[in-house]
């Protein structure tokens, strides 16, 4: 990971925290699109997933990936794999400043080259409101792109009293089938997201939170509808294709 001196890191964190607070006020936490109001999401035709994959041993070079899938068929309509050089350091809670610029560039390329394939919603491998300052990467990408975004994380972020304790594990065990969920309620009583059993065969949930321009209930229902496996297909395809790009362009050295 990119190293910084302690004073420089502290100054950077203050600047980024201030920017997150400013942008946080722009997050829209309710449904804004006609398709979101329909129980079957009629009118939704294109869903996107984004991801960054890294070369083993190199945390500054990554493949920034965008995929657009048809809905409800979940077939890949478009993919964009781009090698990028990350210059911002990795600091916990500030991942968006490291990765979002490259995801925005991918969306811009799509808008310029094939505007008819622009997604109507973007799934982000990470958190939205479920974040230390309630402004994770899904919120960041949503506000700056203007697109509805959903954050889907594979692991629970321990924030505001949320923890993978015995109570949390018992709630997970009580999820009987794909589509079942329970709210992630902080110690202050605020709901920051939901734990979702995303498909029948997975006992491990995913953690869904609002990114932008979508309600939590709609985000959870849409996530479930996009799952053929535990991880929603847009994110899964972005991950598969970015890793495949790295394997084909940067094959591991023989040992």
UniProtKB/TrEMBL annotation:
GO cellular component, one term: nucleolus
Reported cofactor(s): Mg(2+)
Protein localization: Cytoplasm, Stress granule; Nucleus, Nucleolus
Protein's name in the database: Endonuclease V
Segments traversing the membrane: none
Pfam families: Endonuclease_5
Record family assignment: Belongs to the endonuclease V family.
Keyword match Lipid biosynthesis: no
GO molecular function, one term: RNA endonuclease activity producing 5'-phosphomonoesters, hydrolytic mechanism
Keyword annotations of the record: Cytoplasm, DNA-binding, Endonuclease, Hydrolase, Magnesium, Metal-binding, Nuclease, Nucleus, RNA-binding
CDD domains: Endonuclease_V
UniProt source species: Knipowitschia caucasica (Caucasian dwarf goby)
Database matches in InterPro entries: Endonuclease-V
Biological processes, Gene Ontology terms: DNA repair
């Amino acid at each position: 990971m990119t190293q910084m001196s302690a004073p420089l890191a502290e100054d950077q964190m203050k600047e980024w925290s201030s920017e997150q607070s400013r942008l946080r006020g722009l997050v829209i936490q309710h449904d804004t699109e006609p398709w979101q109001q329909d129980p079957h999401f009629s009118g939704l035709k294109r869903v996107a997933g984004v991801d960054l994959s890294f070369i083993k041993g190199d945390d500054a070079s990554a493949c920034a990936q965008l995929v657009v899938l048809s809905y409800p068929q979940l077939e890949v309509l478009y993919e964009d794999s781009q090698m990028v050089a990350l210059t911002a350091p990795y600091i916990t809670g500030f991942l968006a400043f490291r990765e979002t610029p490259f995801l925005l560039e991918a969306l811009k390329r799509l808008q310029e080259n094939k505007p008819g394939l622009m997604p109507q919603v973007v799934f982000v491998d990470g958190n939205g409101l479920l974040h230390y300052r309630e402004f994770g990467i899904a919120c960041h990408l949503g506000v700056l792109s203007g697109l509805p975004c959903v954050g889907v994380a594979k692991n629970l972020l321990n924030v505001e009293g949320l923890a993978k304790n015995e109570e949390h594990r018992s709630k997970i065990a009580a999820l009987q089938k794909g589509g079942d969920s329970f709210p992630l309620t902080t110690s202050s009583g605020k709901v920051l997201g939901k734990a979702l059993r995303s498909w029948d065969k997975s006992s491990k949930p995913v953690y869904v939170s609002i990114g932008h321009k979508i309600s939590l209930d709609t985000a959870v229902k849409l996530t479930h509808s996009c799952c053929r496996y535990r991880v929603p297909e847009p994110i899964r395809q972005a991950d598969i294709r970015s890793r495949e790009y790295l394997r084909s362009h940067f094959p591991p050295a023989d040992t």
